[in-house]
Amino acid sequence: MKEIIFPGDIINENLKPGFGTYKKDGKVYSKYLGILYKDEGIKVIPINGKYIPKESDNIIGIVLEEDNFVYLLDINSYKQGVLFKRANNAKLYDVYLMRVNSVNEIRDVELEVISKLANGEAVKVNPKKVARLIGKNKSMQTLIETKTNTKIIIGLNGIVYVIGNDVEKIKEIIKFIEDYSHEDNLTNKVSEILDKMNVKK
Amino acid sequence: MVKKRVDGREMNELRPIKITPSVVERADGSAYLEWGQNKMIVAVYGPKELLPKHLANSQRGKINFIYRMAPFSVPERKNPKPGRRDIEISKVVGEALSYAVLLEEFPGMVIDVYVQILDSNAGTRVAALTAASVALADAGIPMKDLVTAVAVGKANGNIIADLNKNEEDADDAVDMAFAMLPGSEEIVLLQADGILSEDEFDKAIKIAKEKCQEVRKLQIEALKSKFKALKG
Amino acid sequence: MIDYSYDIEMVKGRIEKGIRTNNRKDDEYREIKIETGILKNAAGSAKVTLGKTMIYAGTKLEIGTPYPDTPEEGGITVGVELSPIGAPEFYAGPPSETSIELSRVVDRGIREAKTIDFKKLLLVPKEKAWFVYVDIYVMNHDGNLFDACQMAAMAALKTTKIPKIDKEFNQIKGEYSGNLKLEKLPVLNTYSKISNKIILDPDLNEDYATEARLSIAIDDNLNICALQKGEKGFFTQDELKEMIKTSKKKYKEMRKIFEKL
Asked: Which of B122, B137, B180, B210 is deepest in the core (most CB within 10 A)?
């Protein structure tokens, strides 16, 4: 089990304080309820939260509304994503893989379409768990894809697109990883579950 | 011999408190809390864009705290429309949370925090503030610290912690709502009505601080329960 | 993890193929859990979960003056609050048309079945009678608020205690003089029409994809006591008959849930 940490907890390490921490009177504190990571520096990854847009991230968005000039997309963040009609031709519920070109101080996002996604289903996961879903060197993602013969496109914003024959079972696995992301040896446990699961390939 | 209170509690004893996070699936964060007879649900939605734009603060985000009581939550049925008391509580509790939440990370945005009181017996505002901290942590909102709150006061000549309704209604009753950030002891909510000498006030604050540390432990236990353990 | 609920076309496609979440049948309810007597200040209270939809209901009894056209009767008022807690689209403020429709349909589903004999609520003819207030709070919206709210109201009513009163008709706090008696146990069933298929108890995704909606209240004699069609689609007479048939068939098993409260 990784170390759980709470807002206001003091972090007594001689490492460089990073994401999720703040400094006051020479001491370092956690900002979040989350997991404490000690690598080259200290990081607290919150247990929950919306996607914080970052330049050059690849994300997935779903068209929910349109007006005369733009399409508005759900990108699982504080604000909706925007695609301009003059540069794009989309319909309601279209799913796009996009690149974040820039973000301003009030979290408006400039997006560029990489490709339109089809023949699959989208699910929303906690954006803080995306790293676990991908795994070190894509180990978790590759494990699921090969054992179930599916394609999983993972947006760093927590929207995941699943293309395959047994999408329901894949969703179960994704939920499992989301619920137990704080456990060790998760990749092995997921491998065992996939073997037992009898997924239609 | 130390006197006990009508409900059997010691002078400084809190009523039983039970906190459960993540009870409203559609919310970004939430908590269910029982404190004595008090029962409530808190839900957090946000951070999200604050519209209309002219009401937003371009330097830092805002907390929109709304405290409401259900008509059946009190002995005599209450009109569900907010009264002056509801609006005052919404304001002071929202202000307390505004100090703890790192609002400078959300310019132009708002975090909605709604509390619905379902059953009540004194001390609902401190219970609501305690629950709201848990719900905000559940939502992954960055904070300096959790906010902990408790009511202390005087009844029948004694300084006591966590008055129940009967004690609140005593002739010489003083009810003081208190909240602080437990790490730094920075006081963010303070309301009192009734007559207290300065000595009595000092004693009350001392007890309030101790009790807040107890309350923090319960908030932590509740949040820990979010991390399910894998069996086998 | 959230199943993406906004893609109405995808939901329609699934319904056409006969697929519902958790392999639910077209006429099957999600898991129903009811707790009663949970709120002390309320005369009666209930928490109902229908799948992930979560409702709290509470009753309060107050003494009032009978209406001039019913001088020997008390009455009931039913209200549904779409608390801003329950969904991101609910807001604090005056009731929306959605919450008003909900309140009125749940009210009809109870009142028209003559669930409560208002004459039994009389205290002094023309002057004093008990009035029952049922307030229903939606605390998590995952579809089918109609049925969930009606169940919560019924559960709270069935376990409502009548306050004891003194000679001046003041309520004696904390004391009760018996239970509110329910003469009938009406059941409300809500159906959604999606791509020409009729399904019972729509979850949130199915709610979004609903073209036409029908709520039917059935009483102990298998009579229809209230009907409400909603949304912008249409029903054929055959479809109406099909739904009424299903509701009659399901009445007994639904009623059992309340009998044991």
From this structure: B137
Q: Can you give the pLDDT at residue B182?
A: 98
Q: CB of C7 within 8 Å of any CB in chain A?
A: yes
CA distances to A199, B185, C43, C131 from C83, in Å: 41, 34, 21, 24
Query: What value of ipTM does the predicted structure carry?
Result: 0.94
- Chain B interface, mutation test: which of A22, A25, A33, most B Cβ atoms within 10 Å? A33
Q: What does the buried/exposed string (b/e) look like for C124-153 if buried means 16 or more CB atoms within 10 Å of the residue's CB?
A: eeeebbbbbbbbbbbbbbbbbbbbbbbbbb
Q: Is the pLDDT score of B1 beyond 60? A: no
CA distance A95 to chain C (A): 10
Domain boundaries, chain B: 17-221
pLDDT tens digits for range C214-231: 999 999 999 999 999 999
Instruction: Mark yes or no for CB contact C58/B70 under 8 Å.
Output: yes
Q: pLDDT, tens digit, for every residue of B170-198? A: 888 999 999 999 999 999 999 999 999 99
DSSP A10: B
Can you give the pLDDT at residue A200?
67
Q: Per the omega criterion (within 30 degrees of 0), is the bond before B47 cis? A: yes
Report all structural domains of chain A as residue ranges with CATH numbers, in order of start.
Answer: 3-46 (2.40.50.100), 58-117 (2.40.50.140), 121-197 (3.30.1370.10)
Cβ contact B33:B40 at 8 Å? yes
Q: Widest CA span of chain A, in angstroms?
A: 58
CA distance C107 to B221: 42
Q: From CA C3, how far away is CA B30, in angstroms rounded?
A: 20
A31 touches chain B (CB under 8 A): yes
Structural domains in chain C (count): 1
How far is residue A7's CA from residue A10's CA, in Å, rounded to a whole number? 9
Q: C5 lies in a domain? A: no
Look at residue C15 and tell me if it is in a domain.
Answer: no
What is the biggest distance separating any 2 CA atoms in chain C, rounded to whole angstroms? Answer: 65
Residue B231 pLDDT: 60
Owning domain of residue C100 = 31-259
Shortest Cα–Cα distance, C231 to chain B (Å) = 23
Residue C2 lies in a domain: no
pLDDT tens digits, residue range B100-145?
999 999 999 999 999 999 999 999 999 999 999 999 999 999 999 9
User: Looking at domain B17-221, which CATH architecture does it have?
Assistant: 2-Layer Sandwich (3.30)
First CA to last CA distance, chain C: 34
